[in-house]
Description:
The chain has 599 residues and is of the alpha/beta class. The chain has 22 helices and nine strands.
Amino acid sequence: METSSVAAPGGPPPGRGNLLATALRRSLRQGYGAAELRADLGAGLVVGIVALPLSMALAIASGVPPQYGLYTAIVAGLAIALAGGSKVQVSGPTAAFVVILAPIAARHGLAGLCLATLLAGGLLVALGYARLGRFIEFVPHPVTTGFTAGIAIVIGVLQLRDFLGLEVAELPAEFVERVEVIVRALPTARWQELLVGVVTLGVLLGWPFLSRRVPAPLVALGAGTGLAALLAAWLPGAEVATIASRFSYLAADGSTVAGIPQLPPLPVLPWHLPGADGAPITLTWELLRELVPSAFAIAMLGAIESLLSAVVSDGMTGKTHDPDGELVGQGIGNLLAPFFGGFAATGALARTATNVRAGARSPIAAVIHALFVLAAVVALAPWLGLLPMAALAALLLQVAWRMAEARHVVHVLRVAPRSDILVLLSCLALTVLFDMVVAVTVGIVLASLLFMQRMASESRTELVDQAELDLERPLPDSVVLYRIAGPLFFGAANKAMTTLRTVARKGVTVVVLDLRSVPVLDATGLVALESTVSKLRHGGLVVVLAGIQGQPLRALAKAGWRNVAGSLAIGRDFERALETARAYAESDPDAPSLHLTHA
């Protein structure tokens, strides 16, 4: 997996200093003037245009009304930009969260979704202040590729109902049952919905070849909305479902109004929002305990996705981000958003890439994007209600296709080792059939076990021919030299020590163990080495441990290993250790002593 350096030019070293608003402070410190503001203003407007329909579509896919996706983009997008550690990252609702959020919304409604987000925000802040940002590099690439492709498949299947206009009251939570319901409902597909969806998707895919100055979603959704209006005007009964026909809200006077409210996000206690039955929920410890696993999943996915997006933006800009500061910023955004009706947010790769390509210079661009979405909600809410559901489904189908990275997955399946292919396919299947938490947990454990198996296969012990050493003075025939190579850890120690269990060469009095190629020694390796050395010594042999590296030497010293005259000699200097072995073999009372020292 690609990783990034976090040392910012002119900024504090990684892991030190204040973690709050590191990207904004770095941008201002490096100089921010009118030229930078103009660049950020243009980039923020472009990203805002992209984020506007996408935020609504992702809210709908997550099981909540579209305005809450807009509130997430506004509040979380603004807070994370100001508090985070990446200069050009744009945050908001993302497609990856859909597979986690939709089940929460189905069980606990919007209130449960916001509470889970609140808990996840606290976890993210804790991860940042625990300086765990760098640990993202330990998530294997096949794991991220597998669960991302799996999420893309789930999202794509979820969009088929609106894209085809199927008459399905509710989609089951389980993937297999969901597919069965969609297949059975295929005869109910409506041609007008499909036409609007196909036209929107065609424009989304084709517009970038004509122009990159105007965002493709703006043109495509405009075309889809126009087509839907023409069908409704010219063909009686050919109306296409829109946001306004599917969603409504309660006005201040108690009346029900179609579409989304023409209001900014207003402060609210998350548990006062509607639950699964439409009524506010009761905040209890039992509910919080039930939401903790979901909150953990949101936090882990948010950390992974935001830091991967930041790494990609680093590659595009040549800049660096502060991973711990970014986690703190993401946490603050997810802590604040639920108090304004927002749900889980993280760094959005597509919007971040758009931001970079549009010329963003600092976090101010992401702030402007959030303010644009706010202005659109206040000024254009009635018009946003005209967007066809099929057009929004087409937008998410394109997002899912990009997430899947089918070419990259095929390439990995062709060239990667079998162990990595197993991890990738396992994560993909588990994400689709179960959930992302199960997939990532199993994927990391499986990848770790396979890695340990590979490392164990690299650990070996072999008898060394003196001719290989090119010594000025050959060792006596009574000295044998074994080279131990590779890490001596719990997966490899016993295998590596098997060769030394018996040294059955006639006339051998001294055994030298060359440890120069052993970088790591854990407790299991220590026990295995101790057992082997003990057996050799009880057999009347002198054992010399030669060329020990720093960490193994410190482990031996901590375990109380010491030189034993006439029986055991330990040292870092390989040449001096050979002299000691030679002296013991020749029964030299003046054999040079070795000192168990460690760095």
